[in-house]
Amino acid sequence: xxxxxxxxxQVAPSGPSVxxxxxxxxxxxxxxxxAQIDDAHWLQLLDDQxxxxxxxxxxxxxxxxxxxxAVGRDDRVLAVLLQIDDRTPAQQVLLLIAAVRLGRTDLxxxxxxxxxxxxxxxxxxxxxxVETAPESSVNIVLNEELRHRYLGDDRRTRLVRSxxxxxxxxxxxxxxxxxxxxxxxxxxxxxxxxxxPHPGSMPDAAAELLLDWGVRRDRLGPYVRERLRRTAExxxxxxxxxxxxxIESVARGDQPALLx
Length: 260
Known about the structure:
Layout: H1 21-34, H2 39-50, H3 58-70, H4 74-81, H5 89-102, H6 108-114, H7 122-131, H8 135-148, H9 153-163, H10 170-183, H11 185-195, H12 204-213, H13 217-234, H14 237-251, H15 255-258
Helix pairs in contact: 2-3, 3-4, 4-5, 5-6, 5-7, 6-8, 7-9, 8-9, 8-10, 10-11, 10-12, 11-12, 12-13, 12-14, 13-14
């Protein structure tokens, strides 16, 4: 009908009854090519008429996942795509995005390792999903990427920057900044300095990274003094032995900038 709804015919079909699996899949493919049906009504049609006749057919499951994803039914996407053994790359992307949004941390490591996010807008869609995902998903996604480096440098940098405000783990924050700093020390330091604009709030691990990189010297003075103060208060000779070389490296030839 013009409003996108499908209507059951009241006229008895001529010829053999259309109940076979092949017939049902053929009807679904024909409708997909020729009918204008919105996603919600496609799901209704699949559930009421098509899937009961061929509940395990990959084509019908794929259509169900496609339309479920379009209306935000991530639970349905996950359920039907897990029934398909030989998923296409596009289906794999849909499955990964659904798992990210649903916080299915039990599935994420395997899906992250087996999903190609380099084609088309796959990575952009994945990034949007991660930005709004549960914290458990965010942590798993970043931890797996830092360990295995699936995405490549540019996409990993975009991932880190997009979820940086949501990270709460000091370890993950430092590892992510260190990964960025490997290619661009100034950018890595900028992440840490922006995250902890007050020297007293910066964790020791982050401060030690800043001293090790020796960049952003115009802003390091207060952080160096704070690191020295904490070390002296603890009377920790081992920590002092680690801190002093970093301070010397930063200060060498640039003492006025440090304002020690």
